[in-house]
Amino acid sequence: MLPGRGPNGRAARLSRILGTRTAWTAAGDGEFFCPGCGGDRNYQRLTGQRRFTLLGLPVLPRGETGPVVECAACRRHFGTDVLDHPTTTRFSAMLRDAVHTVALAVLAAGGAGSRTALESAVLAVRAAGFDDCTEEQLAALVEALEADTGRITGEPCGAGLAIELHEALDPLAPHLATVGRESILLQGARIALADGPYTPAERDVLATVGAALTICSDDVTRVLAAAARTPS
């Protein structure tokens, strides 16, 4: 059989004559975490119009396609659900705010008047990214939190404080592995234990933290027990 005369050759010739082409139109842009590059990149959100081509020229519309997200660096296309994942910068900010909110909530449960609890909270908050955090700042914020939520130190976790915790933790939880979610709960537990055993109010706050992080109650109990057995 002569070259180009078989089925593959006919298919190749046909593809050069007839085909499809997509014309992309930019519909938005921004920054996202690119799965292809493995880091934060700029992107364009594209919508496409598919057309049949004859000899490379578009002739008939074939319908719309997309939308897709195109990375400005690697030029790969992804589904728009990739935009649901936070950028590295945004994720770091969410994690920092989560630790800060948990620390304030635990202190509001009874540790704001304890120097050791405040010291433990400051260490946790600084490690999360608030480098200039001080004991005085946290104590003042606890007072402001109690005034805002109408809560009194030592009371169980009320609706106002629960809302604050869920607002900080709900958006973060889906993007953390189990070990990451339990690590945040563990940091709260260590703050609570800094001045002695858990109080009922501290346990209640930590249970709310666990629920907001989608940790089941049995695992919350396990993490709190492990923290109590571990010397600080």
Structural write-up:
By secondary structure, this protein is α+β, with helices and mostly antiparallel strands. It is built from eight helices and four strands; from the N terminus they run H-E-E-E-E-H-H-H-H-H-H-H. It has helices spanning 7-17, 88-111, 115-128, 135-149, 159-169, 178-193, 200-212, 217-229, and strands at residues 18-34, 39-54, 57-71, 77-78. The chain has a four-stranded antiparallel sheet. 29% of the residues are buried. The mean pLDDT is 85.
Features:
232 residues; alpha+beta; 8 helices; 50% helix; elongated
Brief characterization of the structure:
The protein is 50% helix and 22% strand. The chain is of the alpha+beta class and 232 residues long.
What's the topology here?
Elements: H1 7-17, E1 18-34, E2 39-54, E3 57-71, E4 77-78, H2 88-111, H3 115-128, H4 135-149, H5 159-169, H6 178-193, H7 200-212, H8 217-229
Antiparallel strand pairs: 1-2, 2-3, 3-4
Helix pairs in contact: 2-3, 2-4, 2-5, 2-6, 2-7, 3-6, 5-7, 6-7, 6-8, 7-8
| Number of DSSP helical runs | 8
Q: Unreliable stretches, pLDDT < 50, 5 or more residues?
A: none
Distance between the termini: 81 Å
Number of strands: 4
Largest sheet: 4 strands, antiparallel
Strand line-up of the largest beta sheet: 1-2-3-4
Overall pLDDT: 85
**Helix/strand class:** alpha+beta
Organism: Streptomyces olindensis
Pfam family, one: TerB
Protein name: TerB family tellurite resistance protein
Domain Co-chaperone DjlA N-terminal: 121-222
